[in-house]
Amino acid sequence: MRVELRPSLASHVRLQIDPVTSEPVLLSPENILTLNETSHDILTRCDGSKSVQSIIEELASEYDTTAPSLSVDVIQFLGELQQEKLIILLP
Known about the structure:
Elements: E1 6-9, E2 14-17, E3 24-27, E4 32-34, H1 37-44, H2 52-62, H3 67-83, E5 87-90
Antiparallel strand pairs: 1-5, 2-3, 3-4
Helix pairs in contact: 2-3
């Protein structure tokens, strides 16, 4: 995945808090994906305005760690969501 691309939720996907469990979820017509805190933190930044690299850098700062230590996991997570057509990558 090219880190200069800007991830955005696909048009058929919504990020919200489940009203019953109060857990963050990613909803699509085909499924519901319950998110952990880190996944939620990544997806709240996927608005099409920030590059993958800037998302990694923001998270590194927030979690008080280095960007290289997060990059593999963030890129893998976004890649899986892209394969499932839950996010799109904008130039």
